[in-house]
Design goal:
With 173 residues, the protein is of the alpha+beta class. The protein has four helices and five strands.
Length: 173
């Protein structure tokens, strides 16, 4: 395996990044909207190498979730924020922001697709332990072995993701 150089600097910069400025501006202005805007924190796929590197990227993702949660405490607006974790490839792990919009009003709110259950992925013990830790912090986890993905959100941050309304289900992973 080829040695990757500069990882200490890479992770130091990653921990210092703040990708939420644009989201905070949009959420503050009720005339603006987001349609499944998302942020990826592991664009290079380093999290696929080992759990330690995957955990670093997940820590950054959920750090941004908490920062956004703190920002929107006093904002009176409909929105949804959630993370989708793709179990087979950490490059696709992302934090999503979704707001109502006039172009596709029928697609708000996003509802967790059929086949997701309130459980942890069994084939990934390190990730399962990480998700259990998130649950203790107030997150809700739905996973699908078939789609190899997890949806993670907080119930009291934004609008709910699990109403039983089949016509608002989308085909996200």
């Amino acid at each position: 395996m080829k040695k990757r150089r500069g990882l200490k600097r890479y992770y130091r910069k990653l921990h210092q990044c703040n990708e939420l400025d644009n989201w905070c501006n949009i959420v503050s202005d009720k005339s603006k909207w987001y349609y499944f805007s998302h942020l990826h924190f592991d664009r290079n796929g380093y999290g696929n190498v080992c759990w330690k590197e995957h955990k670093e990227h997940l820590d950054i993702l959920f750090k941004h979730f908490l920062m956004f949660e703190q920002y929107v405490k006093n904002i009176n607006r409909s929105f949804q924020i959630f993370a989708i974790l793709v179990l087979e490839d950490s490059r696709y792990d992302a934090l999503f922001l979704h707001t109502p919009n006039t172009h596709t009003p029928e697609e708000y709110p996003y509802i967790i697709p059929a086949g997701y259950k309130k459980e942890y992925p069994l084939r990934y013990p390190s990730l399962r332990n990480y998700l259990e830790m998130l649950t203790k912090q107030g997150y809700t986890v739905f996973s699908s072995e078939e789609k190899q993905a997890c949806i993670v959100f907080k119930e009291n941050v934004g609008d709910s993701l699990y109403e039983d309304n089949a016509n608002k289900r989308l085909n996200l992973p």
